[in-house]
Design brief:
Layout (H helix, E strand, L loop, with lengths): L1 E2 H4 L34 E4 L5 E6 L5 E8 L13 H8 L12 H7 L2 E7 L4 E8 L3 H13 L7 H20 L5 H9 L14 H6 L2 H11 L5 E7 L3 H12 L22 E7 L5 E8 L5 H14 L5 H9 L3 E10 L4 E9 L5 H18 L3 H18 L9 H12 L5 H9 L3 H11 L5 E7 L29 E5 L5 E6 L5 E8 L13 H8 L9 H11 L2 E6 L4 E8 L3 H13 L5 H20 L1 H14 L15 H5 L3 H11 L5 E7 L3 H11 L25 E6 L5 E9 L10 H12 L6 H9 L7 E4 L7 E9 L3 H16 L6 H13 L1 H4 L3 H13 L5 H11 L3 H11 L6 E6 L1 H10 L4 E5 L3
Parallel strand pairs: 1-5, 3-7, 8-12, 14-18, 19-23, 19-24
Antiparallel strand pairs: 2-3, 4-6, 4-7, 5-6, 9-11, 9-12, 10-11, 13-14, 15-17, 15-18, 16-17, 20-22, 20-23, 21-22
Helix pairs in contact: 2-5, 3-28, 4-9, 10-16, 11-12, 12-16, 13-18, 17-23, 25-28, 25-32, 26-27, 28-31
Protein name: Peptidase, M16 family protein
Organism: Pseudoalteromonas tunicata D2
InterPro entries: Metalloenz_LuxS/M16, MPP/UQCRC_Complex, Pept_M16_N, Peptidase_M16_C
Length: 921
């Protein structure tokens, strides 16, 4: 479950209570056609006070079930912090009529995007379920709303207290992880409801009693303090019947008092410096600003985007692009119910002076407040923001989906479509509006933080049957668009799945390349070269390219994974022709400008430094050479970034050679999903890609030699002094794709899901739910052309390192021996994977990715339809055999990252095998 800090940036759009800037006739209004989506809804309220919002969208047979409670960390008090978030965790530990892990019925039903989050102002719980599972989902949600207290025991409280504390440790052990707590405590006065972090303090969590938890539920979890949103394949009549059936008998709670606003605007400057184990210095400036629901909040959001939103923002151009003092910049409006905050920051590059960076930030901010943004800047940002929003609401559920939008409007503003007011304010915002808001809020009262590296309501008498969870009797049929195929004049294979629900076109050009195509002295070149494609063409500079794409509401994305590279385009249909033209220009005419290359080289080296500061990323850098040896194509960081030595030596000739060798029509496939016909598509592409032809050389081949497997375990320990956690990773090599029998990849996936590939897997339930030593432990069975790595990984509290390793070994041994996968586990995993298929391809990018992945593996679109049957055909004996064949204790390579001074003796006492100690880097 996520805390508010994990989603803070996505929360803050605000509305209107002033009239400034609402006159569209003002001379400096940025006149631009802004795209939007009209989210139709209906709402009703049950007799017990539960508000229900319904949105019908029948494009996929799924329903988003989203429950928001009007309670967050602001309802706590000093000495009792962390309760809102801790209670969120307890809501997943069973209710009186289903006293088991909450995720179980949902996994079997194929639920997706299931989570719970807490922020300062609210707590929410959400999931997407197949239409046939709506009764189950509403039964489960209503059972924990109306029938929870009898299931909350001291053992459960202690267990989840431990999980939350490990979540806190894990978050604070990440680079800059303590920043949010420090900012909360120093920007709001003591006792202000925003002056403590959402996750709370260790001391307060330790002091939480069972009586405290029960009282929290009684105070805040009544139906009259909640909003239920149902969005998707459901109509109003059905929603009314089901809401009444499952929630109507729940007794209302008592009234809840709310502080509507307390901005706590500051005067003067407060400065603070802190040291943390971070790779780079960071500057952060914070102002307390207008609360949620104000026009000033919208204007300040626009100002923040002008200042540091994307490549064409002023701080990016100045600090990252021109003077190259920072690796990244950020600015956003963190808007909440009682108060907002403008947060501006920059991460300094090595040897850069934070004082100089702060001076530049102050200079650019002062100039922006004095002169205002240009009309062109407002045009660009308004359209770009609107385009991003249109894309985000394609889905009915999840973060930013339509149910999320409706719920936030209903909870924060008593208006499910409050977003329309937000958009109306932004659309007519003027230069003067933005300037005036900046002057009102950002000329005094800043907090400067520098972070330096350190070595009357009734209820009905009768409700739903609570004796059993409603069964999901059947599953909706997967419905996919017809797939068309064509070949361009240059030989490029084109695959199109036409989807017209939103006016967008998405395409992905996949190349058989990837990290494995650039090895040894060129390790990291694939990802670097694909990144350089976006840095300008022979006709458009990097900034010109970014500006034009922003104006079009388009995006070009590139990158590599282990075996493949891709160049992708997301375009608005109305701008398809120009967007496709730019895409072709990026592909065929990269400039590889030396200055851009040096800038990207600096950022890549900075990224490598940050990878080394992150335990998990560092382990993914170190483990591959240990598994594959020195001369294998996969013997390089799985992050794809290469090493300092290789990146420093990349040349323009290397980039040209890479694109010439690997980015060719006969080594590529184009997959398109969107609002376009095949005729429109091929006409445009044959024109724009006419000059892209195959060279007169054979297609390149990757060297994927078979690696001999070790005969005994090996242990590598990386020192991370004073780390509050240890990261445990154990890896071995599985079969290559060419050696897999038909359907073996599905069997391996099922095997992995049971042992460690899901929340309810054995390893996670042991280390997180039973022991409370880790926030999350998992395993992963990678898919690769060559021998694929299998990993088990677990970040654990330092004083439980030895015990956690022992538990992992115990689980693996039992899985391959005395306690193999059982029928109940397999049935649950199979049900989950089959049930989630119908809703998996709701969004264009999801369908595009699945189609591209199928074709890359020598399959076609029929595989997506056949997949549920193939999964259901796997036997228990086959899954058990896959575990025995793959998981060999003697072949494990262990990488442990932690404070050696605290864990050395304990690791050695385990007698895992020969131990090699490595420095932090």
């Amino acid at each position: 479950m996520l805390s508010a800090l994990a989603v803070a940036v996505s929360l803050a759009l605000t509305g209107c209570n002033t009239t400034a800037g609402t006159n569209a006739a003002k001379a400096n209004v940025a006149a631009v056609a802004i795209p939007s989506v009209d989210i139709q809804y209906e709402t009703f309220t049950l007799d017990n006070g539960l508000t229900v919002v319904v949105h019908t969208d029948k494009k996929a047979p799924i329903v988003a079930v989203n429950v928001w409670y009007k309670v967050g960390s602001k309802h706590e008090r000093l000495g009792k912090t962390g309760f809102a978030h801790l209670f969120e965790h307890l809501m997943f530990n069973g209710s009186e009529n289903y006293n088991d892990e909450y995720f179980g019925p949902f996994e079997r039903a194929g639920a997706t995007e299931q989570n719970g989050t807490t922020n300062n102002d609210r707590t929410n719980y959400f999931q997407n379920v197949p239409t046939s599972a709506v009764d189950m989902a509403l039964w489960m949600e209503s059972d924990r709303m109306g029938h929870l207290l009898g299931a909350i025991t001291q053992d459960k409280l202690d267990e989840q207290r431990g999980v939350v504390q490990n979540e806190k440790r894990q978050g604070e052990s990440q680079p800059y992880g303590r920043m949010w707590t420090v900012m909360s405590e120093n920007t709001f006065p003591k006792g202000h409801p925003y002056s403590w972090s959402v996750i709370g303090s260790m001391e307060d969590l330790n002091a939480a009693s069972l009586d405290d938890v029960h009282q929290w539920f009684k105070d805040y979890y009544g139906p009259n303090n909640a909003v239920l949103v149902l969005a998707g394949d459901i109509d109003l009549a059905t929603a009314k019947q089901k809401a009444q059936q499952y929630f109507g008998d729940i007794k209302p709670g008592k009234p809840v008092d709310q502080i509507d606003a307390w901005v706590a605007k500051r005067t003067g400057t407060k400065r603070m410096s802190m040291q943390d184990r971070v790779p780079n210095p960071r500057l952060v400036k914070v102002w307390n600003t207008a609360e949620l629901g104000t026009a000033d909040g919208e204007y300040l959001s626009l100002l923040a985007d002008v200042l540091a939103g994307g490549k064409n923002s002023r701080l990016y151009q100045r600090l990252v692009y021109q003077e190259q003092k920072a690796s990244s910049v950020f600015a956003f409006n963190y808007s909440r119910v009682m108060a907002g905050q403008i947060i501006i920051g920059a991460d300094a590059l090595k040897d850069a002076d934070l004082a100089e960076i702060e001076a530049i930030v102050n200079e650019e901010l002062a100039r922006l407040i004095e002169e205002g943004p240009t009309v062109a800047e407002l045009n660009r940002i308004k359209f770009s923001n609107a385009a991003s929003w249109v894309k985000s609401v394609e889905g009915v559920g999840g973060f930013g989906g339509k149910s999320d939008v409706l719920a936030s409007g209903a909870v924060y503003h008593n208006d499910p479509v409050f977003y329309k007011k937000q958009q109306a304010i932004q659309n007519v915002a003027t230069v003067e509006d933005v300037k005036a808001a900046g002057k009102r809020w950002l000329t005094d009262g800043d907090f400067v933080l520098t972070i330096e590296p350190f070595a009357q309501l009734t209820n009905q008498d009768v409700g739903a049957d609570r004796s059993k969870v409603p069964a999901v009797e059947s599953l909706p049929k997967l419905v996919l668009p017809t797939v068309e195929k064509a070949t361009l004049a240059n030989g490029l294979e084109v695959i199109l799945a036409r989807r017209t629900d939103t006016p967008t076109v998405n395409l992905q050009l996949n190349f058989d390349a990837g990290f494995a195509s650039t090895v040894g002295a060129k390790a990291g070149l694939s990802d670097f070269a694909m990144g350089m494609l976006k840095e300008g063409t022979t006709s458009l500079s990097s900034l010109e390219l970014a500006a034009e794409l922003e104006n079009l509401g388009a995006g070009i994305y590139s990158g590599s994974n282990l075996d493949g590279s891709s160049l992708s385009l997301s375009a608005m249909k109305i701008n398809w022709q120009r967007s496709a033209q730019i895409f072709a220009d990026v592909l065929m005419n990269p400039a590889f400008n030396q200055a851009d290359m040096e800038r990207l080289r600096t950022l890549t080296l900075d990224g490598i430094n940050k990878e080394k500061a992150s335990p998990m990323s560092n382990a993914l850098r170190i483990l591959p050479p240990l598994l594959y040896g020195d001369n294998h194509a996969y013997s390089q960081p799985l992050t794809g970034s290469g090493s300092e030595e290789t990146v420093k030596n990349f040349s323009r000739e290397d980039l040209a050679d890479y694109t010439r060798t690997w980015l060719r029509p006969d080594n590529a496939r184009l997959v398109v999903v969107g609002d376009i016909t095949m005729a429109e598509l091929t006409t445009t592409l044959n024109k724009e890609l006419a000059a892209w032809q195959n060279p007169n050389t054979a297609k390149p081949q990757k060297q994927l030699a078979k690696v001999a497997l070790p005969s005994k375990p090996r242990v590598f320990v990386i020192d991370k002094p004073e780390s509050p956690q240890s990261l445990i990773v154990a890896g071995l090599l599985g079969p290559a794709r060419k050696d897999l029998a038909e359907g073996q990849d599905i069997k391996l996936d099922l095997m992995n899901t049971i042992i460690g590939g899901s929340f309810t897997s054995r390893i996670n339930m042991n280390l997180r739910e039973d022991k409370g030593w880790s926030y999350g432990a998992r395993s992963s069975m990678s898919k690769a052309e060559g021998q694929a790595p299998f990993f088990v990984y677990a970040p654990v509290q330092t004083d439980k390192t030895k015990e956690s390793i022992s538990e992992i070994i115990k689980e693996l041994k039992a899985y391959t021996g005395t306690n193999p996968a059982n029928a109940q586990e397999l049935e649950k995993v199979v049900s989950n994977k089959v049930a989630k298929v119908p809703g998996s391809y709701e969004k264009k990018w999801s369908l595009l990715s699945a189609l591209a992945n199928a074709y890359d593996k020598g399959r076609d679109e029929k595989y997506l339809e056949q997949y549920p049957t193939k999964v259901q055909q796997v036997s228990l004996a086959q899954v058990q055999q896959q575990a025995k064949d793959l998981i060999k204790e003697e072949q494990l390579t262990w990488v442990i990252v932690g404070d050696v001074a605290k864990i050395k003796a304990e690791i050695e006492s385990l007698n895992l095998g020969e131990i090699t100690y490595l420095p932090a880097n």
